[in-house]
Amino acid sequence: HVQLVESGGGSVQAGGSLRLSCVVSGYGFSSYCMAWFRQAPGKGPEWVSSISRGGTTYYADSVKGRFTISRDNAKNTLYLQMNSLKPEDTAVYYCARGWADFDNWGQGTQVTVS
What we know:
Layout: E1 3-7, E2 10-12, E3 18-25, E4 34-39, E5 46-51, E6 57-59, E7 67-72, E8 77-82, E9 91-98, E10 102-105, E11 109-113
Parallel strand pairs: 2-11
Antiparallel strand pairs: 1-3, 3-8, 4-5, 4-9, 5-6, 7-8, 9-10, 9-11
């Protein structure tokens, strides 16, 4: 049974930082690419960042230079370090397994920037 569980969300002021975590169980974490998405109120899902099995990272233009994706294969955990947060970063953040297709998702964690 594949399970992805996000944590680390919360409320911060603009300019602040948060680190999201996604703990994965039920499959070989190191064998898969992983990604972060977000969904703001009234909007569709937005891809934020991806990381390959080998650690190559990719970012949406809206977060490039502020967010850092990383993975710890020994801990089966995906991270998203978010710095210089802006009100427009307010959303529910989801981790997902995959590359072009994403077949498993977490339940999401709320990030609110005021």
